From TrEMBL:
InterPro entries assigned to the protein according to its UniProt record, in alphabetical order: ANTAR (IPR005561), Bact_Sigma-Reg (IPR052016), GAF-like_dom_sf (IPR029016), PAS-like_dom_sf (IPR035965), PPM-type-like_dom_sf (IPR036457), PPM-type_phosphatase-like_dom (IPR001932), WH-like_DNA-bd_sf (IPR036388)
EC number, as in UniProt: 3.1.3.16
Keywords: ATP-binding, Hydrolase, Kinase, Magnesium, Manganese, Metal-binding, Nucleotide-binding, Phosphoprotein, Protein phosphatase, Transcription, Transcription regulation, Transferase
Single GO term (MF): kinase activity
Purpose of the protein: Primarily acts as an independent SigF regulator that is sensitive to the osmosensory signal, mediating the cross talk of PknD with the SigF regulon. Possesses both phosphatase and kinase activities. The kinase domain functions as a classic anti-sigma factor-like kinase to phosphorylate the anti-anti-sigma factor domain at the canonical regulatory site, and the phosphatase domain antagonizes this activity.
Pfam families: ANTAR (PF03861), SpoIIE (PF07228)
Naturally occurring in which organism (per UniProt): Streptomyces tirandamycinicus
Catalysis performed (reactions): O-phospho-L-seryl-[protein] + H2O = L-seryl-[protein] + phosphate
Protein name, per record: protein-serine/threonine phosphatase
Region (Disordered): 81-109
Database matches in SUPFAM superfamilies: GAF domain-like, PP2C-like, PYP-like sensor domain (PAS domain)
Biased composition (Low complexity): 83-104
Segments forming domain ANTAR: 20-81
């Protein structure tokens, strides 16, 4: 007996996605009901005050009025509230003696239902909806969407932008509706540049109406320069706390009714921003960096009190993977990834506690039928005390994986140069790499220099030397400048073609690695698994070096300053993600003296680097006042106390006077300098002073050290001498003995030798400044 054929098995429905969708719809319904009850409660309060009714009598009275007038209860409630308080957003009702033309029904004012009255009623209903959304935990994006859809879209508006004013007068995008995520990411922060339109409105506190768009070349949020815009200051308790910007698809007549309606809707927007959680800064520069990635990525922030994780930002691939969740940014992680939040929370906590990246092959580890697809190759990176980044790959579907592989291979282009005939051949992809039309004459490798950035032509010369003189293959990474003005990062790998020992041609490939390059710069990591391991390591080394030099530029050659020779070295931390806050500076001053500084910001990561840059630049400016090192350190202490994140730092600051060979210096909890004189090394005991950023109003003592011709002075940070196995005193003694063992040599050789001989084992970064008196 044969079994009947079975039809195709229906896939099991995504129960979790359906549940989230259903809960989202229920939440929306609850918010609509809360908005309705909020408005009815306000109208009931007016009736209680005007007619001395009880709350129950006021509710019955409102129902009878609605039945008598033939107006819905919500519309009548909006009319009653507007009649008692004025239009939404005004401080009071109409001026005394003004004829507003109301009618009364059973003793209650009812405005005429003309166009203005309808707009006032709509504004009141929208305000109630926004207040209800705020009270039920709605995100600022959701509340902005309520204001846009109910109150501004009927006026032809395209998008609403809500900016919060920070303590430093930056404008932080708190929420928006109507714009795409890429456009919104561009306007997450607006610095306080002088004379900008947004900051002019912020300072003057008066609305700005631009019916024909921007009046200058200045860029503002909106779809086009000539799109109409309205910029409204948001006030709370008499203080401008932010801005609301409304834009239109094109030019628009912003007449008095439109201006009146928008001004009214600015009041609930101001209350929404004022109620936002203080001190929860956006991830700043990380947001646009995440948007550059081609794989899913999101930023998480842990609540300082409860530890609950919230989703701050998702890039486009991540948003595509959570389409079943409405407005995921700002929600708790458990709401966005209910089946995976426990594993992700564990990885995020481990990353923050250890200050090291965490990895998981798959989340959740145990995947059950009916659950959403797991996250593959998950990486969680710490970027602060309460913030982490989560990077992952999507489902490993063979068809999708094959498509991605083929898409990456399209970035490869083959070329071949015939050195006998002078002809060159390109594959079809090469024209796309260089932005040239197919059929254009191929450019031989030896004539490629005009197509490259002028700083990279030396790399091309070195590759040609290897190919033509050494007869060896090689590869380089250069920047190609396209005719359309675009800049692409290009890897060139080439091999010589030999016939009977004679060089007859060159063959190789061009590969566009721009996406990988930007990812390496942003996060010091790569997802490019199709690149050979050796090539990948070489690219990472180059990019990490660029990042190091951008933060603390190394002195490439021996510097000769008034009365001094100076060599400086910077050794980055062993772990590529632990960028530190070590810094140094050697600066000749107008009065002939030379500033010599070494410092160390506590901690690692973006915050420490930001603090380091702030202190280094501040001390440079203060040095030009001509004051003593003790006074400079006192000022720098005040700068540290007012720097974002309240960092702490150690530093030693000296001013060398070549006229009398004296070094006047002060220290803020820093390690003692080492003086090498006639083969004997001595640790210079610094004046005892507290570190920078600990307490205000500190007076830093100074000491004067006379230096003789031939003396060598060494300033350094703790990464050179700290050890997990021994104390700091043993590390300093080890440094002193190593200095005495230095062979007589020029300053550059001694700096390199000392850095090689003395190495701490804490994997911290290290700065070293070596000064020799001429």
């Amino acid at each position: 007996m044969t079994k009947p054929e079975q039809g195709p098995v229906e896939p099991e429905p995504d129960r979790l996605a359906d549940a989230v969708t259903q809960l989202t719809a229920e939440l929306a319904a609850l918010r609509r009901d809360a908005a309705r009850r909020h408005l009815l409660d306000l109208a009931g309060g007016v009736l209680v005050a005007q007619h001395s009714l009880t709350p129950g009598e006021a509710a019955d009275h409102l129902a009878r009025l609605a039945e008598t007038t033939g107006v819905s209860t919500e519309d009548l409630a909006a009319d009653i509230v507007n009649g008692a308080t004025g239009t939404p957003g005004t401080a009071a009702g109409p001026a005394p003696g003004t004829d507003t033309g109301p009618r009364t029904v059973d003793g209650v004012a009812r405005p005429e239902y003309d166009e203005a009255g309808t707009a006032d009623r709509r504004a009141r209903l929208v305000e109630a909806g926004a207040e209800a959304a705020a009270q039920t935990g709605g995100t600022v994006d959701e509340i902005a969407a309520t204001l846009l859809k109910g109150g501004m879209r009927p006026l032809g508006a395209r998008a609403l932008w809500l900016f919060r004013r920070t303590e430093t007068d930056c404008l932080q995008l708190a929420g928006q509706a109507g714009a795409n995520p890429l456009e919104a990411s561009h306007w997450r922060w607006v610095p306080p540049t002088g004379g900008s339109t947004l900051h002019r409105v912020l300072g003057e506190g008066t609305p700005l109406w631009l019916p024909d768009g921007t009046v200058s070349a200045e860029a503002l949020p909106g779809p086009a320069p000539d799109s109409a815009r309205a910029v409204l200051p948001l006030r709370q308790r008499g203080v401008v706390t932010g801005l609301a910007l409304v834009d239109w698809p094109g030019p628009a007549a912003l007449d008095e009714p439109v201006r009146r309606a928008l001004t009214g809707l600015a009041a609930p927007a101001a209350r929404i921003l004022d109620a936002g959680p203080p001190g929860t800064a956006e991830p700043g520069a990380l947001t646009p960096l995440l948007d550059l990635l081609t794989h899913p990525a999101m930023a998480l922030r842990a609540d300082p009190e409860s530890g609950t994780l919230h989703v701050e930002h998702l890039n486009r691939p991540a948003l595509d993977s959570v389409r079943h969740v409405h407005g995921p940014a700002g929600r708790q992680l458990a709401q966005v990834f209910p089946a995976m939040h426990a594993d992700l929370a564990r990885l995020a906590a481990a990353a923050r506690e250890s200050a090291a990246p965490q990895r998981a092959a798959r989340v959740p580890v145990r995947h059950r039928a009916g659950d959403p697809d797991p996250l593959h190759d998950v990486r969680v990176l710490p970027v602060g005390p309460d913030r982490t980044l989560v990077l992952w790959h999507g489902a490993t579907d063979p068809g999708l994986s094959l498509s991605r592989v083929l898409g990456r291979l399209e970035n490869l282009a083959a070329f071949e140069d015939d050195l006998i005939t002078g002809e060159s051949r390109w594959s079809e992809q090469a024209y796309r790499v260089f932005g040239l039309e197919p059929g254009t004459s191929p450019v031989p490798l030896r004539r490629l220099a005009p197509q490259l950035h002028r700083e990279d032509t030396g790399k091309l010369d070195e590759l040609l030397t290897e190919l033509t003189q050494r007869r060896e293959g090689g590869h380089i990474v250069v920047r190609a400048v396209r005719e359309d003005g675009g800049l692409r990062h290009l890897r060139i790998a080439a091999e010589p073609l030999l016939t009977g020992g004679v060089l007859t041609g060159i063959t190789g490939v061009y590969q566009d690695v721009s996406a990988q390059h930007h990812t390496e710069i942003a996060l010091s990591a790569t997802f490019d698994r199709l690149t050979a391991a050796q090539t990948q390591a070489a690219l990472r080394q180059q990019l990490v070096l660029q990042l190091q030099q951008a933060i603390v530029p190394e002195v490439p050659e021996l510097q000769r300053l008034p009365g001094l020779q100076v060599a400086a070295r910077y050794r980055p931390a062993a772990e590529e993600y632990r960028v530190g806050g070590d810094w140094y500076d050697v600066l000749p001053l107008p009065d002939g003296r030379v500033l010599v500084v070494t410092g160390d910001i506590a901690g690692h990561g973006i915050d420490s680097v930001t603090g380091m840059v702030a202190l280094r630049n501040a001390l440079r400016g203060l040095a030009f006042t001509g004051h003593t090192p003790g006074r400079l350190m006192a000022w720098l202490n005040e700068v540290t106390l007012h720097t974002h994140g309240r960092p702490t730092a150690t530093a030693v600051c000296g001013l060398y006077d070549p006229s009398d060979h004296t070094l006047r210096w002060a220290s803020a909890g820093h390690l003692p300098p080492v003086l090498l004189r006639e083969g004997a090394a001595e640790l210079l005991e610094p004046p005892r002073s507290i570190l920078l950023g600990a307490v205000p109003d500190v007076a830093y003592e100074e000491t004067v050290t006379r230096l003789e011709p031939g003396d060598t002075l060494m300033l350094y940070t703790d990464g050179l001498v700290e050890s997990r196995r021994t104390g700091i005193d043993q590390g300093l003694d080890r440094l002193r003995r190593a200095v005495e063992r230095l062979e007589p040599a020029d300053l550059d050789e001694q700096a390199d030798a000392l850095l090689a001989a003395v190495t701490g084992d804490t994997d911290d970064d290290t700065s070293l400044v070596v000064v020799r008196v001429s």
